[in-house]
Amino acid sequence: MLKLSTKGQYGVRAMFEIARGYPEHPVAIREIAERQDVSVAYLEQILNTLRKAGLITSVRGPGGGYLLSRSPREISIGEILRGLDGPVALTACQDPLAGCVRADGCVTSLLWKALGEKIEGFLDQMTLHDLLAGKKFGSERAVGA
Amino acid sequence: MLKLSTKGQYGVRAMFEIARGYPEHPVAIREIAERQDVSVAYLEQILNTLRKAGLITSVRGPGGGYLLSRSPREISIGEILRGLDGPVALTACQDPLAGCVRADGCVTSLLWKALGEKIEGFLDQMTLHDLLAGKKFGSERAVGA
DNA sequence: TAATACCTTACTAAATTTGTCAAGTATTTT
DNA sequence: AAAATACTTGACAAATTTAGTAAGGTATTA
Ligand code: FES
Ligand code: FES
Fold this sequence. Notes:
Two copies of one chain form a homodimer. Chain A is 46% helix and 6% strand. By secondary structure, chain A is mainly α. The first copy, chain A, has one domain: Winged helix-like DNA-binding domain superfamily/Winged helix DNA-binding domain (Arc Repressor Mutant, subunit A, Orthogonal Bundle). In chain A, strands 1-2 form a two-stranded antiparallel ribbon. In chain A, helix 1 packs across helix 2, helix 1 (6-19) crosses helix 3 and helix 1 crosses helix 4. Bound molecules: FE2/S2 (inorganic) cluster (FES) (2 copies). One FE2/S2 (inorganic) cluster (FES) is lined by residues 93, 100, 102-103, 106, 108-109 of chain A. Chain A binds a DNA duplex through residues 5-7, 28-30, 39, 41-42, 44-45, 47-48, 51, 58-66.
């Protein structure tokens, strides 16, 4: 239930490697591939998407690679995942586009909305800096409604 | 990103209808299908799974239908979704079975674990009773790490 | 000009999801 | 007993999504 795509997972891990070169040292795709055990071809696709999303910039030619567009503190995990897999959309009805026909009468509408916002809140507060710092992510408090 | 299967969505809505008959009145599959706009054939599959998971019981013959096995306060949304789609498993590595090979060195391991626990905590605290009562689900507080 | 390294598009095999269909079993009512 | 109601089970398939691969192109530097 609620799987995260490998694209999203690899994307976050790739961003972590790029963050290690911040602010000056470009990180080559090949280096990321080796350190994170992901194929170069797949990473190309992923990094291209992230570049178009404005999260990284690229430097061509020998010695080139990828650089963060902003500081690790200013790039959240949520942004990375949204860039690759779109926004959290637990149900079709929650999708920014075309709300559900039954939206009014639907008993679960508010439930999914609340969960979706909770998840986005978590992902948006978590940044690359937290990953770099090896932050301990509190997971004990299961805050209810 | 992070879609919920229609099976899970329909399952929760079906359980809501069944809960309305609690504790004595069995709810026929056909009634659920009509009220929630889901095909009878698909619901059969879903309710069968939920019955095997022990969440509902069935009564055959005319006047029959489905009944909750326990009170609405004692059946959480998490149980329903787990019964239909298995546990929350954001990544292959988080799956109860076979932890990832890189688990030690993986920078995101703790992050996904924390998010997964947060989601499960939310789903496990939410019960059918809350749905019946039209509870307002707090979604404002995005609790960080 | 050779080497490095990013850029882009197209494509496809596998897995998953989302159902449908058909035939069967149990129970109650008449 | 017979008919009607309603759950039970297993097989199957179309549609979608995921998870990549492949191939060729472009820009930069030494
Ligand atoms: S069916 Fe659309 S909000 Fe529930
Ligand atoms: S790759 Fe397995 S925990 Fe990250």
